[in-house]
Design a protein that fits this description.
Blueprint: H1 16-26, H2 29-39, H3 41-50, H4 56-66
Helix pairs in contact: 1-2, 1-3, 2-3
């Protein structure tokens, strides 16, 4: 685990989902590769599909790389805002 990615969290409470999320958003390809080996590609795909806190850029990249439908991910299936700002 890269400690600089979890400065705000107790290291004892870091879950696989959180570690993969932070790696996708802030880690490098080397760290992501280690996590794919550690948790498996199925867990990696599950986090990409279900996690709303991932950046849309990162989700788009990994969907293209892994052949996933990005419209079925939580990052791209956000509902529109309840209100519209006015000027």
């Amino acid at each position: 685990m890269r400690k600089e990615l979890f400065w705000d969290t107790d290291p004892e409470k870091v879950t696989a989902e959180l570690e993969i999320e932070r790696a996708i958003n802030f880690g490098g390809f080397g760290y992501i590769e280690k996590l794919q080996t550690k948790y498996g590609l199925d867990k990696f795909r599950e986090v990409i599909i279900k996690n709303r806190r991932l950046s849309r850029k990162a989700v788009n990249y990994w969907c293209r790389a892994l052949g996933l439908d990005r419209d079925k991910t939580a990052a791209f299936s956000r509902k529109p805002a309840i209100w519209l700002p006015t000027r």
